[in-house]
User: Fold this.
Amino acid sequence: MNTIVDIVLRLACWLLLAPLLPGIINRVKAWVGGRRGPPVLQLYYDLARLWKKSVVMSTLASPAFVVLPAVAWVALLAAAMLMPLGPAGAGLSFRGDVVLMLYLLGLGRFCTAWAAMETGSAFEGMGAVREVSYAVLAEAAMVAAMLSLSVQTHSLTLTTMLSPTVGAGAVLLAAGLFIVLLAENCRVPFDDPNTHLELTMIHEVMVLDHSGPPFAVILHGASMKLLFFAVLLTQAVLPMGKLGVVSSACVLVAGVFVVTVSVGFVESLMARLAFRRVPLQLATAFLLCVFALLVAWKGGVA
Amino acid sequence: MNTSLALVVAAAGMLLGIMTGRTAARIWLITTLVGVVAAATAALSVLNGADWEWRSGFTVGGELLHLRLDGISALFMMLLCVVGGAGSVYGSEYWSEIEHPRSARSGRLWWSMLVLSMGLVLVMSNGLHFLIAWELFALSAYFLITLDRQRSEVRAAGWLYLAASHTGTLCLFAFFTSLAAQTGSWEFGPMRDQAALSPLFWLALVGFGLKAGLFPLHIWLPSAHANAPSHVSAILSGVAIKLGIYGLVRFSGWLPMPENAGTVVAILGVVSAVLGVAFALGQHDMKRLLAYHSVENIGIILIGLGFAMISVEHGNAAWGSLALAGGLLHVWNHGLFKALLFFGAGSVLHATGTREMSRLGGLWRTMPWTAGLFGLGAVAICGLPPLNGFVSEWLVYLGLFDATILHESSAWEAIPAAIALGVTGGLALACFIKVCGIVFLGAPRSEAAAHAHECGKSMRSAMCLLAGCCVAIGLAPIVFWPAIARAASTWHPAWKVVQAPESLAPLGRVHVALAVLAITAAALLWRRVKHQGLKRELTWDCGYAKPSARMQYTVGSFAGIITEWFAFILRPVRHMHRPRGPLPHDASFEEHTPETVLERVVAPFANLIMRVSLIARRLQHGHVQAYVFYVLIGLAALAAIVIAGGGK
Amino acid sequence: MNHNLNLLLDVAMGLNLVSLACSRLQTLIRVMALQGVILGLMPLVMEHDLDWRFALIALATVFGKGMVIPLLLRRAMRKAHTDRELEPFIGFVPSLLLGAGGTIAALAMVNQLPLLPEHTGSVLVPAALATILTGFILLIGRAKAISQACGYLILENGIYVFGLLLLKAMPILVEAGVLLDITVSVFIISIVVDRIQTVFDSLDTRHLTTLRE
Assistant:
């Protein structure tokens, strides 16, 4: 009985809170820009409206075009279930779940990129190419980051891995993971979620042809991915294992909030990078994670 | 069934297959399948129980016949049976009498020969007989590759294969004869205590490595796999190159290892994995691309094997056995999904007559089965959950992470290997999105692609069988673990028991849950969409009203970003005509990635040898008198040597 | 083992990587100047009893590397109307990865070197090696004369870090000699840059190949 309640609460937490994050980011951007901006709950309204719409689908696309967003969404949700939530731990935890988490993100990417290729459109092809190409570098950075966490904690289970020690390594890791977060969630400086120039986009351009309920699923999945990375970043950097139940929960919420707000600030204060420079930024993230790994390694010897 | 009896039935089935292959297609198929099933039961009984061994009184070539089927050979035997059986069914339709009247008969004959000789390689326990079986296997593979020998590129691929294969056999010949010379017997078995044998491992590495196609010894592999008939490509890529791995696994477990051998194997694995997939991304030919992915997956297997060897050097069996188990399971997995993918490519080739991806597109409409099964294979080869590719990569990752956590010096190798494995996974994903997207999705790029047809029942059932195996290993890895553990514990005499990682069972459950959830969510979303109404319109494309098939992303442009990163090693060849003038009409861009190692390294060297040989050929001109004169000079030289050396 | 010194050296190594990744010449010069300043501070944190000679070295280094040389380079850059490295021989990502790989290798290798007992635990030697490697990568991989000058100077920074090992034995002599050398060479580079600019109307050193015959 208890486990059922736990899973329901956890699902509710991920499903219901995730769309809040893009709202907060937009609010921060509006505040920096001196505008009033859309309401924080805007994405909820959008999702509800999309859910009630009918679907227009390309004549070229197969039924997979409609159902793959659901598969990608399930993959992201499964990754979220593996992610511990502060004192509550993870919904599901076993040795080696960290690798499963990385590859579930890959499965999500596979489904989105496949659906993009269904339409036979040059724009969507372009988005798919960029998505899968830049993901290679982000993946390398993620593996290095996870290695550094598991070296620090001598563990391969996310629940124990995400209670790291404080130190120089944490700063490097935070910087590296933040860049990965920006890249994986297609935020400025890698991608501009607000632009209307298709040539400059990655994620948005991939989902140009989606509409109605599948599009709602995609948008919800994207917000879940953002929440996922924010939770990961917070727990990978802050030593929350040493705090009490209430305080660590507060720290987690505050950490996610701070990450979200800083994404908003980055978005307000930076311009999008030229695509030429994207690999360089991701290589930087990779190196930051590698050096965090080295610091963790040296710390382990002493 | 008794193992010996099963093997006798298997051999009889194959021999009958060889005899009936030319005449009776149906009987051939039945006997081959019976043989394959019998061999599979034998392998299964070995994997579940004790080794099988048979020392006979017969001598072949002066040596007593000695056969053995232990955990490792049974593992490879099992793969051979599954792919061999599926391939026979597939081939009976794909290379049928109606479409290939010239070669269908010999195709069946050599197919049985190939399966039989590969089985023989696996059971031979005497160096001499191993070499005979190995040569038989290499030759039957050659005849299968060149079935369609009217085409010149097929002949060229066949010659290249034969040359590479014989270079490898030469190394193996040197290896086995020196082994026999030093141990005093052609028999082989565990001999880790004789430290003097350790340098021989390098010979085995080159000999078996050439067959396995590890980078940079893979030069023969792309053209051979691309030009062979697809069912042959499937067994070549799924099983034949694995026999190279079989040799490496066998002798790395039995021979004493030279220092740093594990590191060398692991580095070769990493290089093969990353560069294999990078070359694959640059390809335009569907089957050639799949062939390069074999290089990648051989790399992943070698990473597992290499770290098992490193762990032996460090005396730490725990993570080494995980890495080895991952590598061995990947042998199965790669055999299954690669054969499935080659079958899929074959059915595309069958339906459209081309392997050029830039002429295909939109095939899902006419070939939904092939598209779906190929997509499943793509998910598996990218190592994505919940299919089998992920399970083996997960085991290798576990080994690498453990090696890092333990904080030994071996971590210096494990960290880059883990990162490279992650990069390989990302690149493979990019590559298979490219293949699936260009071949099966979007709009057809040519008439042939628009009027394709689905393959027949035999081909489809063969693909379904392999896809089923992929799904089964993915969803219930714990069921298959005992077989892998049995093989891993046979590898090294000191590893008596290989424990299952305690999280393998939960991983299987997660996979099942993931599959069920994904299907449910997909069905629910489909229902919702149907309920809300589904309209078909032109691709929106930001409002462009006349999209055409030519506007889609192409093979080259899809891989452009990544091939640019690897351009320093891929050396793509570009031909570009820029548009000129105010009203340009004549502009084009073409890029292809050649087999760089072959064209830049091996070919110049071969040219040099040819030039020297041409000079030497002047000595041969047909004048008998001159030849007698050569003999005289030779005798004189010998006499001179004897006189000069006689003083000692 | 000296924590402050190691921290400075870590920062210097970080700046190496930044210098490999930046395409703006202005940033490159700034990074190099900052590294010069940090290098200048090192003699001060190395010894507990401050000698006036160390202070003098520090002052001279900070002044020379942090102010004079960057000033000269910046002037050359303005004269040449160029501010970006556009088409390097070795791309930014590969050179960054090379530099990072070299740094890690140097750090890993340090235990194998026969060092004096007082230098174990210090990253002085790996930092010196990594900085020299960075200098070489810049010299080999960049096309613009200004970037090459920066590479040359970073190379010298590496030699300077090596010199810190000998700080007690022969302090001023080594450094003074090297610094003088550098100042002169920077003058020469500024002049050469000016000449290249006027002759070829560009700072790309690839044009120099036309002078072969």
